[in-house]
TrEMBL record:
<dbReference type="InterPro" id="IPR000182">
    <property type="entry name" value="GNAT_dom"/>
</dbReference>
<protein>
    <submittedName>
        <fullName>GNAT family N-acetyltransferase</fullName>
        <ecNumber>2.3.1.-</ecNumber>
    </submittedName>
</protein>
<keyword id="KW-0808">Transferase</keyword>
<keyword id="KW-0012">Acyltransferase</keyword>
<dbReference type="GO" id="GO:0016746">
    <property type="term" value="F:acyltransferase activity"/>
</dbReference>
<feature type="domain" description="N-acetyltransferase">
    <location>
        <begin position="2"/>
        <end position="177"/>
    </location>
</feature>
<keyword id="KW-0046">Antibiotic resistance</keyword>
<dbReference type="Pfam" id="PF13523">
    <property type="entry name" value="Acetyltransf_8"/>
</dbReference>
<dbReference type="InterPro" id="IPR016181">
    <property type="entry name" value="Acyl_CoA_acyltransferase"/>
</dbReference>
Length: 179
């Protein structure tokens, strides 16, 4: 069973451990000092940032992290994506990771994404769709999105999260059910 709650400061050591894992660091090019984690994740944890950092659990044990945000809260992201495809009002985006390397490759990323999508429709009634840009090189990530029901709507060039990856990205979308 997948559940989650908002990330809190006491979770930062666990998050730091996850960000240091090679399978995460490859895609989440993130500084991992305690200060950097507090700097970058503290505002959302304290409610000072409009995005949500969600600590995900599998059967009560920490599994990963999902970042969920309304794109309208980040105009530069809207502009970046709108240069490729129309971005409807109410668009939400997610980013995600599985922290424990022993849980990777078991279909849990897909389940985590499905769960977040279902709850997004419940928790954010103004959400019209979810759009997710993903590096074309990150096959595991875009396959998880596809298995969770998202469809590829574009291929584009975007600034990569990790400079070792090229700018090639796929853009995925799923619309609110019934629309």
């Amino acid at each position: 069973m997948i559940t989650w709650r908002r990330l809190v400061q006491e979770d930062f050591p666990l998050l730091r451990t996850w960000l240091e894992q090679p399978h995460v660091a490859l895609w989440w090019n993130h500084e991992t000092s305690a200060e950097a984690v507090a700097r970058d994740f503290g505002p959302a944890a304290r409610g000072e940032e409009p995005s949500e950092d969600l600590l995900v659990f599998l059967d009560g044990r920490p599994l990963g992290l999902v970042q969920r945000s309304r794109l309208a809260d980040y105009p530069h992201y809207v502009d970046e994506l709108a240069a490729v495809v129309p971005v409807p009002d109410g668009t939400v985006s997610i980013d995600y990771l599985i922290g424990d390397p022993g849980q990777v490759g078991r279909g849990l990323g897909t389940e985590m994404i499905r769960s977040v999508l279902e709850r997004t429709w419940e928790e954010l009634p103004d959400a019209s769709c979810v759009m997710v840009p993903v590096s074309a090189a990150n096959r595991a990530s875009w396959r998880a999105l596809e298995k969770a029901g998202m469809r590829r709507i574009a291929e584009c060039e975007l600034e990569p999260d990790n400079p070792i990856h090229g700018p090639a990205h796929y853009l995925y979308r799923i619309d609110r059910p019934g629309t």
